[in-house]
Amino acid sequence: MNPELVIVTPEPEVLISAQGINQTWGNRHVLQNIDIAISENEIVTIIGPNGCGKSSLLRILLGLNTADEGTVTRRKGLRIGYMPQKLRIDERLPLTVTGFLMLAPGARKQRVAEWLERLSVSALADQPVQQLSGGEWQRVLLARALLIEPHLLVLDEPVQGVDIQGQRELYQLLPELRNELGCGIVLVSHDLHLVMAATDRVICLNGHVCCSGHPDQVSVSDEYNTLFGRQLVVPEIAPELAHYTHHHDHTHCADGHIEDKQND
Length: 264
What we know:
CATH architecture of the largest domain: 3-Layer(aba) Sandwich
CATH superfamily of the largest domain: P-loop containing nucleotide triphosphate hydrolases
Radius of gyration: 20 Å
Largest sheet: 6 strands, mixed
CATH topology of the largest domain: Rossmann fold
Oligomer: single chain
Strand content: 25-35%
Strand order of the largest sheet: 5-6-7-3-9-10
């Protein structure tokens, strides 16, 4: 009898990780004891209210800022495609979409044209960037991040100023890009109740990692309605948007310090 064949699937490689991250601004604790790791082929959504430290953590992971304490480890040769929350172009600067994308490191006209077509914005190639709508500009910024063929795609508030249809289209596109490129994706949002249904992992941040795990199915309970004082998305309008269950076992002090409720 032939022995049973066992197929071992290799563990996804960690692209970037951080341990013991602490950051203080003045007397305010912005980040406390953050441990996080992002692996290839996974989509991670970092959610939390405004001012919870999402952008600070992101900038530390990207190497744009240095934490007061802690270490960040990046895989050797890691290429990161970064889509910033905001990027303003001077109204007086004569710059087309193609011209803007050609400024990206290593950009080639053929690749620029390919990504514009892939993202369904080829018609914008010769348009001035200042005349783009919010959704169009976000796609152009995404094309810029993809031009380097990233191992890790980082999107900071990618649906800011984008209508619900644009949000739906972006949410559907990201898993496709992950599968095509085999990259990891980090998506940051200030909307605690909005996460992609396709997200593999959700990290809830509020100065520290409050909780993490898979996003839950849409709920209509009062608990969800009162989550961080925000309204729910109506499922009939945006069925792709899921909701995340969040339970606090701690309180946040005015200076950002965290106290366990069990110790009160």
